[in-house]
Amino acid sequence: MLRPIYAAASLVLSAFVASSAYAGEAGRIILVAGSAQVGDRAAVLNAPVQEGDMLVTGKDGYIYVKTIDNGLFIVRNSSKARITAYHVDQKNPQNTRVKLELLSGTARSQSGEAVKLARQNFRFNTPVAAIGVRGTDFTVFTDQDTSRVTVLSGGITISGFDGGACRPDGIGPCEGSAARELSAMQKGVLMQFRRGQSAPQLLPESNINMPPDAIAPPRSDEPGRQGGAAAVPVPGQPDLEVHKNAALQQVASTAKPNEPGNTGGIVTVPPVEPKPVDPVVTPPVVTPPVTPPVPEGQIVWGRWQAVLDQPAQLDFVTESAKHSTPIATNKYFALMRSAGREYTVPERGEIGFTLNKGEAYMLSDNPSIPLQAMTLENGSLNLNFDRRTFTTAFDLVSPSERLAMKAAGDVAYDGRFVADAGRANTMSVNGLLSSEKGGAAAYLFENRFEGTRRTVYGATYWTAAPPTK
């Protein structure tokens, strides 16, 4: 999974309201709509929100809070949230403490200036999970058992509460072995944690795995978003046809039977001389130009880092400039889709793939143990389009060991497929399908071996066999 390295923050805080000026003030309401409360009072525009205030919205309610460090906290409809702590220390950012809670519903958090300088002291809690940030804009949905997160920019770390190192009363991200990361570069996926799971799952957005924006769409005026909710309705315009029909009815009802031109109360219309008809001119037939179909986007993958004296295979910046869409990255590899039409997943059938290329490296936590190249053998990748699922497996081999790797997960409508490490899976997978060369697939994989304190990072490319049905 993506584990970006962030440079030390060099930003200087711009002027914002110091916490000492408004004791306990976390921010101010910049928009309120529908049924919305702050504590035991109705939410009103420009009202302060204090640390500890409960923010509650009804079915039509929204509250936008601009925090004291120019961040944004949005509570969407049918939600309950709280800014538990918002202490900002401008002179010593390491003393800043920010903690948000979403008890139920949907909320969006956009990091302010102080949070960006003290990310290690930011926490966003749900009833089941803790979320930390990397200087981030993200959206969360939660109920009492399940939390789902999508990222607009930056990245987040999410972990379930385990009663030990990761507790609801903590501050900062939980970064143990059960923590998982999600980056804005990983499009079309979300991170989900359910009560009782050992670790969060990376899942494709779908009608089953509905992202927060689908559950509670943003308003059309939400900053930085294309709102999914309807805009404020405009009063209806008069229906001219109704007015014309009413006028005609008025004429008919007031006409007298004995008036000239009327017979028995029926309005009669004097005959109208027909107008001469212009000759019909047939326009010349113009054949519209044929627009060639847009080609399907192709798989772009490779090692974007130099490894063991081998140069990088993929220039990530150059490929991005060519309008390639990043699908996933890990420490050494990147997977992208070139500009073009999206792949459409078949509705029926199954297909198997043959491993064409693969590359992997095992990295130890012990700096005295060198990075080791691994090979892949006995690969299999099978997709079931009826169920929108996939399974894959291979042997990860070095001169001294052979490790059986496997994973199973879901396939999205646009050909992306993902599986998270955990349960029966022995690795995380982020992949992409394509019609190129009669059918192709590629995926990045990663796994942490806690017993030996090692992590493997790899990439694979597959070609398709004929469909089995």
From TrEMBL:
It comes from the Bacteria. Keywords: Signal. Residues 55-156 form the FecR protein domain. Residues 1-23 form the signal peptide. Pfam families: FecR. This is FecR protein domain-containing protein. It comes from Pseudoduganella ginsengisoli. The lineage of its organism: Bacteria, Pseudomonadati, Pseudomonadota, Betaproteobacteria, Burkholderiales.
